Amino acid sequence: MAGVPLRVCLFSGASSLPIRIADHLGLLSEAGLAAELHLTRGSRELVEGLAAGRYDVVHAAPDNFIEWSDRTGADIVSWIGGTSGPLHLIGSPELAGLADLAGRGIAVDSPDSGFVSILMKIVRAGGLAAEDVSLVPLGSTQLRYEALMAGRTAATMLALPWSAMALEAGFSLLGDRDQVLPGMQGSSGASLRTWLAAHPDTADSYLKALCAAITWLNHPANLEDANRYICETYGTSPALADAVHRSIMDPRTGWSPSAFIDPAGMDMVCRLRSENGRPPDRPATSYYTLEPYRRVFGFGLGPCAGEPPEDVEGA
Fold first, then answer.
1. Is-cis flag, bond preceding 161, omega within 30?
2. Which of 190, 242, 212, 202 is nearest to 19 (CA)?
3. What is the predicted pLDDT for the residue at 115?
4. Domain limits at 225?
5. Which of 18, 180, 229, 315 could pair with 213 in a Cys bridge, judged by C-beta atoms 3.0 to 4.6 Å apart?
6. The dihedral sign for the CA sequence 183, 215, 230, 228
7. Are 101 and 136 in contact (CB under 8 A)?
């Protein structure tokens, strides 16, 4: 019997590893889903596709969803977690520090993408002002990595595996998100609120499949197979594949076992937007929901974000 259609859009970086493993191992099919995974070349393409109904679930930095919701009125809600790191500002080998970026161009996905808020936090922490650098839109992390390797940009924000590959090639580490924004929700899965409300069973099946993939990735017996998949998918060395695997599955900065979206991490995303002069239109709790977790796991979560607590009898 054919599965329930599900269209998922994501970036090709290692932060999407559990999603791609869920597809690779057939876990999405086992969950009753006929999933199509689409790799995007940029955040604008991804979010526009979600708003237009071309995708059901998208994975990216939650700042992208807040920006798009506030600017266009599209009711986008994050409901799956992801990683909170690592994310690095990597520069050309001749750059000794952040001060050397003054007057240089930094490649970004788009000027209003989620990584830009983090980039400007790193720039300010290094003693530079926003006007000291210029932003050059180039698209996805892979495209920016290729531009950095070819000398077409002085620096860019890179996630795994490209950050590790660039450092291995002798490029300079200029900044680390975890140093300036520890615990921030770095990536999330989101849908239109109307789709999520209309398809709870599909959402729950997807969440269960991702949790099964995370469990598989965390099991020591699967380490060799997981690292082989990383090598084949991203073209890394075995040693680098192992480092990528350990980082993405790190319980502090990687995927949690339940793919949980962290309310404190989402609050930090909103506070960073305010710090950068782009305060969100609504409270942080309106941009995410814990409802799928309450349905799937049920215990200890209490009311969903944004919901009033239920009346306690006798209170």
1. yes
2. 212
3. 83
4. 4-84+185-296
5. 18
6. positive
7. no
Last residue of a domain, one of 180, 212, 232: 180
The CATH number given to whatever domain includes residue 165 is: 3.40.190.10
Q: Are residues 67 and 18 in the same domain?
A: yes
Tell me what pLDDT residue 84 has: 84
Q: Letter for the amino acid at 258?
A: S
- From first CA to last CA, the distance across the chain in angstroms is 50
Q: What is the pLDDT of residue 1?
A: 56
Give the whole-angstrom CA distance, residue 62 versus residue 44: 13
Q: Could you give phi then psi for residue 32, rounded to 5 degrees? A: 85, 20
Identify the residue whose tokens are 């050397």.
100
Q: Name the residue among 157, 146, 152, 199 with its Cα closest to residue 7.
A: 199
Say if CB 106 and CB 133 are below 8 A apart.
yes
Identify the CA nearest to 67 among candidates 91, 98, 46.
Answer: 46
Rounded to whole angstroms, how far apart are CA atoms 116 and 157? 9
Residue 303 lies in a domain: no
Q: What is the pLDDT of residue 276?
A: 86
Supply 220's token pair.
């020591």
What's the pLDDT score for residue 43? 87
Give me the average pLDDT of each 10-residue run along the chain (315 residues): 92 94 98 97 92 97 94 96 90 95 93 84 92 92 93 94 93 93 93 98 98 97 98 93 94 90 95 91 96 84 44 36
Query: Do 85 and 102 touch, CB atoms closer than 8 A?
Result: no
